[in-house]
Each structure stands twice: as C-alpha cells, then as structure tokens.
C-alpha cells in the first residue's frame, strides 16, 4: 500500500493468530465509497480511494492509491497501487493487485481454493491456510485471523487488539469518536472504525520515525 519503501511493508503487515474459516464482512459505507487524504508527517502526499459494489453475498472492493513524496520540486518517491478483491457469502474469494512504485513494480494474485488460499507473485507461489484474508484495512472483522500482505503476497505477523473509542481527525478537520484496533508486531498501526463499523482513519509509525496518516473525507 504505501509510502516510502519502509511504509509499504509496515502498513501492509498482517496477522497470523487463529484462522477464521468464515470471516464476516465489516460494514461498508452507505454511499459505497471511501476516500482518504494521506499525510506523511502532517503533509498531504496523496489519496486512497475505495469503491464497493454488490452485497454480502457477492461483494467487490476496488482500491486506487496515488502518492508522491517531493523534496522541493523534485519527486523523491512515487507510489501507485490498484487492487480488486472479491468476497462471497462473507468469505474471501480472490484478489488482484498491481503496484507501480519507485522501489519497483509488483503484481499479486490470490484465490480461495479447496486446499487453502493460493497466493501468487512474480517470484513464488504460497498456499496459505483456509480462512486467510488480505489486510486491506477496511474489514475489521478479519484482523484477528490469518492475513497476508496484498502488495507483497507475504504472510506476516501482528497482534490486533481492540482499544475502545478514541478521537480521530477527518479530512475536513473535524474530530469524531471511533473504535480503535491497534496492530502491533511487524506493524505499528492504529485503525479507526466508526460506530457503524466503517473504516474511518489510520495512523502508523514508519521505521524512519515518520508517521503516515489517513483522514477520511
């Protein structure tokens, strides 16, 4: 998903606790769309957009991310990422992602099979346990299950802990109370979900000490 190269690995890290054979879906926005302003150390560097189509029986989630970090007039880092994930009856079905970044281009595909979730990258193929899902952040219902990095295709480890209601800042500067899930381990990320369960914000600390923040429009 993101950033300077360290940010990408951090924000897309995922957990490997107990597998969830049939993960439920979190709430989707009423207008079927999520848009986040992305800030690094408080400076806006891009946008993360998601659209939702279908219903719980056949849900498609499309993601577009576009970020650029500039030093003066020079673009020091460019990141573009697209993803399309499919869910059927509350279970992950498939994912396709394409990433175009200064650090290199990547493609990942994943599909649920009778044997488990088969994840393919340009370098290898991995058969993950049944119930494994992508960490695309919007779906809080899978945070305590087995997850994989949708950009790299790796299974990585975190713990996900619910921290209760805490304030989060929106893109227009307003502050609202939302439920926090803290992701720790191979990640240092807080995700916020509003009272309806819709993804509302993200804040993560990067290995270089900087912060990355998502503010929902």
Molecular structure report:
The protein is mainly β and 217 residues long. It has one domain. The chain is 3% helix and 59% strand. The chain has one helix and 15 strands. The protein has one helix at residues 5-11, and strands at residues 33-40, 43-55, 58-71, 74-88, 91-101, 104-113, 116-121, 125-128, 133-134, 147-148, 158-169, 175-185, 188-193, 199-205, 211-216. Strands 8-7-6-5-4-3-2-1-15-14-13-12-11 form a 13-stranded antiparallel sheet, covered by helices on one side. Strands 9-10 form a two-stranded parallel ribbon. Strand 11 and strand 12 (175-185) form a beta hairpin. The longest helix has 7 residues, at 5-11. The protein is globular. Residues 1-23 have low confidence and may be disordered.
In short:
This protein has 1 helix and 15 strands.
List the helices and strands and how they pair.
Layout: H1 5-11, E1 33-40, E2 43-55, E3 58-71, E4 74-88, E5 91-101, E6 104-113, E7 116-121, E8 125-128, E9 133-134, E10 147-148, E11 158-169, E12 175-185, E13 188-193, E14 199-205, E15 211-216
Parallel strand pairs: 9-10
Antiparallel strand pairs: 1-2, 1-15, 2-3, 3-4, 4-5, 5-6, 6-7, 7-8, 11-12, 12-13, 13-14, 14-15
Give the N-terminus to C-terminus distance in angstroms.
19 Å
Envelope shape: globular
| Integer count of domains | 1
What is the succession of H and E elements? Answer: HEEEEEEEEEEEEEEE
Largest sheet: 13 strands, antiparallel
Uncertain spans, ≥5 residues at pLDDT below 50?
1-23
Q: State the helical fraction.
A: under 10%
Residue-averaged pLDDT, rounded?
A: 89
Provide the spatial order of strands within the biggest beta sheet. 8-7-6-5-4-3-2-1-15-14-13-12-11
Integer-rounded radius of gyration: 16 Å
Strand portion, in percent?
over 45%
Supply the number of helical segments: 1
**What's the number of extended β-strand segments?**
15
Q: Briefly note the structural class of the backbone.
A: mainly beta
């Amino acid at each position: 998903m993101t950033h300077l190269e360290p940010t990408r690995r951090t924000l897309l890290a995922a957990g490997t606790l107990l597998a969830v054979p049939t993960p439920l879906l979190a709430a989707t926005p009423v207008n079927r769309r999520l848009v986040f302003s992305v800030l690094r150390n408080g400076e806006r560097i891009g946008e993360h957009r998601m659209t939702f189509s279908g219903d719980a029986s056949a849900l498609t989630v499309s993601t577009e991310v576009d970020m650029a970090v500039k030093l003066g007039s020079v673009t020091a880092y460019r990141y573009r990422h697209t993803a399309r994930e499919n869910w059927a009856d509350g279970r992950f079905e498939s994912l396709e992602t394409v990433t175009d970044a200064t650090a290199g281009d990547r493609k990942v595909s994943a599909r649920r099979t009778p044997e488990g979730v088969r994840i393919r990258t340009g370098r290898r193929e991995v058969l993950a346990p049944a119930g494994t899902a992508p960490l695309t952040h919007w779906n809080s219902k899978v945070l305590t299950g087995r997850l994989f990095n949708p950009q790299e295709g790796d299974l990585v480890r975190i713990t996900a802990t619910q921290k209760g209601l805490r304030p989060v800042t929106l893109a227009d500067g307003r502050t609202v109370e939302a439920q926090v899930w803290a992701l720790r381990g191979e990640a240092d990320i807080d995700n916020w979900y509003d009272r309806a369960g819709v993804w509302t914000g993200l804040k993560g600390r990067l290995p270089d000490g900087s912060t990355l923040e998502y503010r929902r429009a």
